[in-house]
Design a protein that fits this description.
By secondary structure, the protein is of the alpha+beta class. The protein has one domain (2-124): Roll (DNA Polymerase III, Chain A, domain 2), CATH 3.10.150. The protein contains four helices and nine strands; from the N terminus they run E-H-E-E-E-E-H-E-H-E-H-E-E. It has helices at 10-21, 59-62, 79-87, 100-107, and strands at 2-6, 25-26, 33-34, 38-44, 46-51, 66-67, 92-97, 112-116, 121-124. The strands form three sheets. Strands 6-5-4-7 form a four-stranded antiparallel beta sheet. Helix 1 (10-21) runs antiparallel to helix 4.
Length: 125
């Protein structure tokens, strides 16, 4: 099991705030949407969370991409190897449901922690 820490940041606070305000969220790898609030947990060029709410503005322009500590390709060396060791070799995007209480805590400045195994993702805020 790997523990990933997303330290409180402007991006994480914007992500939480936008998610609290939104009503429609996309499900990765499908054309489906849900009204359950949540974010996207992504592994490709690094490991990060980003908005799942529907809209035409890219996450980088919204400022809603928050990297896990040690997994930002702009700051950390060997991200590809470290990411593979932490969560596996395949790239993915996973919808993570969050309660309004969890999102409010993120908006207030708490860290997000994900414990990831091959079959589970545990969320702590």
């Amino acid at each position: 099991m790997s523990k990933l820490i997303f330290k409180s940041s402007g991006a994480l606070k914007r992500l939480a705030s936008g998610t609290l305000q939104a009503n429609k969220f996309r499900i990765p790898y499908s054309d489906k949407h849900t009204d359950e609030k949540g974010i996207l947990f992504v592994k490709d060029d690094g490991i990060y969370v980003m908005n799942a709410y529907a809209g035409g503005v890219p996450p980088n322009k919204l400022g809603t991409v928050a990297y896990a500590k040690g997994f930002d390709p702009n700051k950390d060396k060997n991200v590809w190897d470290k990411s593979r060791d932490a969560v596996g070799g395949d790239d993915f995007g996973e919808f993570i449901r969050l309660s309004s209480n969890q999102l409010t805590r993120l908006e207030m400045g708490h860290d997000l922690e994900l414990e990831v195994s091959p079959t589970t993702i545990e969320v702590t805020v």
